[in-house]
Design goal:
It contains five helices and six strands. It is α/β, with parallel strands linked by helices and about 170 residues long. It holds the Pfam family His_Phos_1.
């Protein structure tokens, strides 16, 4: 069974030259590194990372990868910045079949909706407890998925774990 991790970017500064260019706050850098360490401790290593091209998501990726000691080059996608949940699913469907472990980093409300839409409800009890009905910055939803990415649909993945890093 493959793995899909859906992540909301870490805590960003309130201001930047544009919304697209807002950097992470110091807390966001720490939280992303902690989330990376948590993922590494679960044994998750992405084969592919689909990351919004916005500055705060690129910085989230860098801190997350640093915390996990990953060297993977991500796919920065400008379309993921403004994507709604259905468009995010469409982007995931384009991921090559040889990818077993996929990480997606984007923005809310899309990442929260995406996590809700994908969840089959058949995962282990308590897998989403860390989210507490919310999808705050640095939130991770870890799904098991048994199928081709091109066939991903709503309700087709099992939420198996969740994590929220807060420094």
């Amino acid at each position: 069974m493959g793995r899909l991790v859906v992540m909301r970017h870490s805590k960003a500064e309130q201001d930047g030259p544009t919304d697209f260019e807002r950097p992470l706050a110091d807390r966001g850098l720490r939280d992303a590194a902690d989330a990376g360490a948590w993922l590494a401790n679960t044994g998750f290593v992405p084969d592919h990372a689909l990351v919004s091209a916005a500055l705060r998501t690129r910085e989230t990726w860098a801190s997350l990868a640093g915390g996990a000691s990953w060297t993977l080059e991500p796919d920065f996608d400008r379309g993921l910045y403004a994507a709604g949940p259905e468009t995010a699913i469409d982007l995931i469907r384009l991921v090559p079949d040889e990818v077993d472990s996929l990480l997606v980093i984007g923005h809310n409300p899309t990442m929260a909706y995406l996590a809700q839409l994908l969840d089959s409800g058949d995962g282990p009890s308590g897998a989403g407890d860390a989210l507490e009905g919310d999808f705050p910055t640095s939130a991770l939803a870890v799904f098991g998925y048994d199928g081709a990415w091109a066939d991903l649909t709503t309700g087709s993945a099992d939420l198996v774990a969740s994590y929220v890093g807060r420094g």
